[in-house]
Write a structure and sequence with these properties.
The protein is built from 29 helices and 33 strands. By secondary structure, it is an alpha/beta fold. It folds into six domains: 133 residues, HUPs (Rossmann fold); 180 residues, Alpha-Beta Complex (Isoleucyl-tRNA Synthetase, domain 2); 35 residues, no CATH class; 172 residues, Isoleucyl-tRNA Synthetase, Domain 1 (Orthogonal Bundle), CATH 1.10.730.10; 90 residues, hypothetical protein PF0899 fold, CATH 3.30.2320; 64 residues. The strands form twelve sheets. The protein has a four-stranded antiparallel β-sheet. The protein has a four-stranded mixed β-sheet with strand order 10-11-9-12. Strands 31-30-33-32 form a four-stranded mixed β-sheet, sandwiched between helices. Helix 9 packs antiparallel against helix 10 and helix 20 runs parallel beside helix 24. The two termini are 56 Å apart. The chain binds one RNA strand through strand 8, strand 12, helix 10, strand 27 and helix 20. One of its GO terms (cellular component) is cytosol. It catalyses: tRNA(Val) + L-valine + ATP = L-valyl-tRNA(Val) + AMP + diphosphate. Keywords: Aminoacyl-tRNA synthetase, ATP-binding, Coiled coil, Cytoplasm, Ligase, Nucleotide-binding, Protein biosynthesis.
RNA sequence: AGGACUAUAGCUCAGUUGGUUAGAGCGCUGCCUUGACAUGGCAGAGGUCAGCAGUUCAAAUCUGCUUAGUCCUACCA
């Protein structure tokens, strides 16, 4: 093996091998365990959040596979309607074309072409990440099978009246010319103005204080063209006399009623509200109650119409409505119209005032354009009717959120759920299976032929298919069962349903998680006809942010491609990557500056395993995770540590060949039987290993990957490498070691490493495979790959509390000597004599049994046991309980320095003792606290008192010099 | 406006049901190229656990308030 760990040299070959051997596929043996991947956008690339979640999913998958489960990790991608169409339209834009120039069919061909081009990126990235997904089952939401599931669900929901079409106000994106659902709207606070307009009263009416006009306030003056009422509060005395009267809408000349409605807040502004039912969700409700006209004034781009149009609340056009609008507005963009309206009011002397005002502005999460409430025909899922079982499933514990706090968020949304607008005016997506005849009647079925037979339509009835497509999330909502072959392959569906855990971000609870629960429970039933849940647990990961806590986004230029961390990237390349293909090229300079400042050297190559370990270590239950490249470096070093530990193990378990790095024949590690004798260190590490194994299992159960990685890290580094491997050297190097002793330690060194590799394999698949393979001749492991090897289980027979206590003592003695060396500036390599004094029988036994360990690890010239009464020279000392570990000062140690060192210890101990005695003299503590706690404090106090006495006698002795 | 979450070492974060001398990684200081590893070893410095009050024998941990930040929902037109 190389002296340092070189990730790129080992990663790819193992992945190819695993995939070729079909290890990623379910075996058909054992209890099923399944995870559905949250499908990434097929035309996108994976970012740190994906890498993070996929690492967790892969760790879970590999863990369960090694535990003998029939494990399926289902991969796939999503067609991402708007996002993908947007990208392709931009590509067309570069050629100076629009999608309309191409026509629907050609355009969709172009999208497929683009998908083919970019679609491979994600699977390449996933392979580099080591994801053990079953590639033979890979699915795409626009595949024929999944499309069929979509049609099936649509038709069934429609027939059950859980899906309907209606003319309603929707969130309209004037940039993409499509409706979007309410959760695709982001409300952000922005600075705006509040305009106060005078609306003259009709028929000579007057207000209570004698004015001939009402004052209304608005943040959107342009909508006044669609006003159909002015509302006041029914109990507002200023206006009661005017209720039922009219105002003359300025500019338009429309005569509109003054209505009374509770919705109005008397204390805000003037207490008069203009009502524009076709352009505001609240006004729609008010208007509906009072049957005020629904007057639409905008076209699909939110430019003013030449003629306004009016509708009934049932959606019928009102033909006798006079839609005249003032000259000069037709075709004007909404914001130009706003300026003109204000100017015109001003000119008429009807502009009362303009005030600064902060308001919440709705913007599309894709287009970032301001969303317009707009009256259109759309398809809806009656979510309100489907929500209850989904709420109950969480309430009664069938589905559990990890962490628990997200359940409240889920309930809150589900309890206030709105019907889901699922139609999108896009070309890329699942076209809605609905047909219309020339009279506008709607027919829903799987295809046109079925429409005709289902609705008994003659062949000559002309039918046209609905042009719209479905929201991407509609197909994603079916993901857990559509990917398994529903509605045909019910055997597979039932085998892996419900899936075990969904790993995803909290930001898509509503978009995806909640809808999956509703759809799955509606369509998938168990043998008793009881609704089945899609997954038992929902593990919500935090959001990966950059090192400053900023959300990673292309426009901020702070995204990190996980592959760049794996392979490394130089700074120029990184800057180029971050500043190319930007929506706002003017930000390039700033991004370049920040990038160069944050990563002057770019990223070093760290390898997949180090990245995965880092991500795992960040997987605490917190909401936000700031990714710091420094952490990655630390874990890359950890990989190197593991690598070199393996080298040491190999050097001691294989014959060495002179002048060569190649390994010779395997040595006798007990893999073929023979007597073994375990050293204290052997018994200790075997015992400690059992605790580690138990902890790892526990952390998997509790989804505490951060604790798990920390536990593994500190065991491997601080126990296995720093202590155990050092303690194995005295055995290997001692020419008097017996065959049984050598065999025992060789076997332990290999066995523990083998177990560690298995324990950590789900997180670091590549390095563990590489090392595991190299150890096979000495570990006795069979099987082709570590990924299908058995995961370690606790072996109670190996726990050995005596060995743990004895070795703890050994460590303390060694640390004591090192301590003196360190603080007295004695060179680490210089052999020194050490005396052990004031010890009891246990100390003496431990000393006798471990003399060679102690001498070797503390680099001692001699180690002498002092009986009581033996004369002890002036020494620097460390205490291990009562036992004094003494380094004679002669020629080595400065008296003043030693005194200072002891005084520091005295001070610290005194302080602590005072605290404990304070507790113990407190009557209430002694009488109220549990006996065990009081006892513990007493023991601590006693120990400190003797320690202080020892330290004092040491000072006395030094003073006599 | 309502709700949720967060505040622990210079930085990024752990800290289970109240009882630890409050931990880790990175960074920092000193010494070390010892026969796995300088991507290393040994030793060390560094914290009033955001603030205030309370409950308790005992609070980083439980409760209330305050401050700062993040997010969600709803909005007053």
């Amino acid at each position: 093996m190389e002296k340092t760990y070189q990730p790129n040299a080992i990663e790819r070959k193992h992945y190819d091998h695993w995939e070729n051997q079909q290890y990623f596929q379910p075996t058909g043996q054992g209890a099923p365990y399944s995870i559905m991947i949250p499908p990434p956008n097929v035309t996108g690339t994976l970012h740190m959040g994906h890498a993070f979640q996929q690492t967790i999913m892969d760790a879970l998958t590999r863990y369960h596979r090694m535990m003998g489960h029939d494990t399926l990790w289902q991969p796939g991608t999503d067609h991402a309607g708007i996002a993908t169409q947007m990208v392709v339209e931009r590509l067309l834009g570069a050629e100076g074309k629009t999608r309309h120039d191409l026509g629907r069919e050609t355009f969709i061909d172009r999208v497929w072409e683009w998908k083919g081009q970019s679609g491979g990126t994600i699977s390449q990235q996933m392979r580099r990440l080591g994801d053990s997904v079953d590639w033979t089952r890979e699915r795409f939401t626009m595949d024929e099978g999944l499309s069929e599931a979509v049609r099936e669900v649509f038709v069934r929901l429609y027939d059950e009246e859980l899906l309907y079409r209606g003319k309603r106000l929707v969130n309209w994106d004037p940039k993409f010319h499509t409706a979007i659902s309410d959760i695709e709207v982001e409300n952000k606070e922005e600075q705006g103005s509040l305009w106060h307009f005078r609306y003259p009263l009709a028929d000579g009416a007057k207000t209570a204080d004698g004015k001939d006009y009402l004052v209304v306030a608005t943040t959107r003056p342009e909508t006044m063209l669609g006003d159909s009422a002015v509302a006041v509060h029914p109990e507002d005395e200023r206006y009661t006399s005017l209720i039922g009267q009219f105002v003359d809408l300025p500019l338009v000349g429309r005569r509109i009623p003054i209505i009374a409605d509770d919705y109005v807040d008397m204390d805000f502004g003037t207490g008069c509200v203009k009502i524009t039912p076709a352009h505001d969700f609240n006004d729609y409700e008010v208007g509906k109650r009072h049957n005020a006209l629904l007057i639409n004034i905008f076209d699909k781009s939110a430019a003013v119409l030449a003629q306004a149009e009016a509708f009934s609340y049932a959606g019928q056009p009102l033909d006798d409505f006079d839609g005249s609008l003032p000259d000069g507005y037709g075709g004007l963009d909404r914001f130009d119209a706003r300026k003109k309206i204000v100017a015109d009011f001003d000119a008429l002397g009807l502009l009362e005032s303009i005030k600064d005002h902060t308001l919440m502005v709705p913007r599309g999460d894709r287009s970032h354009d301001i969303i317009e409430p707009w009256l259109t025909d759309q398809w809806y899922v009656a979510s309100t009717k489907m929500a209850q079982p989904a709420i109950d499933a969480v309430k009664d514990g069938q589905i559990e959120f990890v962490p628990k706090m997200y359940e409240n968020e889920y309930y809150h949304w589900m309890n206030n759920i709105q019907d889901w607008c699922i139609s999108r005016q896009l070309w890329w997506g699942h076209q809605i299976p609905a047909w219309y005849d020339n009279d506008g009647n709607v027919y829903v079925a799987r295809d046109e032929a079925e429409v005709r037979s289902k609705y008994s339509l003659a062949d000559d009835v002309e039918l046209t298919r609905d042009e719209d497509v479905l929201d991407t999330w509609f197909s994603s909502a079916l993901w857990t069962f559509s990917t398994l072959g529903w509605p045909h392959d019910m055997e597979t569906v039932m085998r892996f349903h419900p899936t075990d855990v969904l790993v995803t971000g909290f930001d898509i609870i509503f978009f995806w998680v909640a809808r999956m629960i509703m759809m799955t429970m509606h369509f998938i039933k168990d043998d008793d006809g009881k609704p089945m849940i899609p997954f038992k647990k929902i593990y919500m990961t935090g959001l990966i942010r950059d090192e400053n806590g900023q959300k990673m986004s292309k426009s901020k230029g702070n995204v990190i491609d996980p592959i760049d961390l794996i392979d490394g990237i130089d700074i120029d390349e990184l800057v180029k990557k971050r500043t190319s293909g930007m929506m706002q090229p003017q930000l390039a300079a700033k991004i370049e500056k920040n990038t160069r400042k944050s990563f002057p050297e770019g990223f070093a190559e760290s390898g997949t395993d180090a990245l995965r370990f880092t991500l795992t270590s960040l997987a605490s239950l917190s909401r936000d995770i700031n990714f710091d490249v420094k952490r990655l470096e630390g874990y890359r070093n950890f990989c190197n540590k593991l690598w070199n530990a393996a080298r040491l193990v190999q050097m001691n378990t294989f014959e060495s060949i002179e002048d060569s790095d190649e390994l010779g024949a395997p040595l006798d590690c007990g893999q073929h039987g023979g007597d073994v004798e375990y050293s204290l260190a052997d018994r200790w590490i075997r015992s400690r290993l059992q605790t580690l194994i138990a902890d790892v299992h526990k952390h998997y159960q509790q989804y505490r990957f951060d604790l798990m990685s920390q536990t593994l890290y500190s065991f491997i580094w601080d126990e296995y490498c720093s202590w155990y491997l050092e303690l194995s050297k005295p055995v290997f190097w001692n020419e008097h070691s017996t065959e049984a002793q050598l065999r025992g330690t060789r076997q332990t060194v290999v066995h523990v490493l083998d177990q560690l590799l298995r324990l950590i394999h789900p997180i670091m698949p590549f390095i563990t495979e590489e090392i595991w393979q190299s150890l096979k001749p000495v570990s006795g492991a069979t099987g082709d790959s570590i990924m299908i090897a058995e995961f370690p289980k606790v072996d109670e027979a190996q726990t050995d509390p005596t060995a743990e206590a004895d070795l703890e003592w050994v460590k303390e003695v060694i640390t004591g000597v090192r301590n003196i060396r360190g603080e007295m500036n004695i060179a680490p390599g210089k052999p020194i004599p050490v005396l052990l004094a004031n010890g009891d029988e246990t100390d003496e036994r431990r000393f006798r049994e471990n003399e060679s360990f102690l001498k070797q690890l503390a680099k001692l010239e001699s180690l002498t046991w002092m009986n009581s009464g033996d004369p002890v020279p002036a020494s620097s000392q460390a205490l291990v309980g009562h036992l004094k570990v003494l380094v004679p000062m002669a020629g080595l140690i400065d008296v003043a320095a030693e005194k200072a060192r002891i005084n520091k210890d005295v001070e610290k101990t005194n302080k602590e003792l005072a605290r404990i005695e304070g507790k113990l003299t407190n009557e209430k503590f002694v009488s109220n606290a549990p006996d065990a706690v009081v006892q513990k404090e007493k023991e601590k106090a006693d120990a400190m008192k003797t320690k202080l006495a020892d330290l004092q006698s040491q000072i006395d002795q030094l003073n006599q010099l």
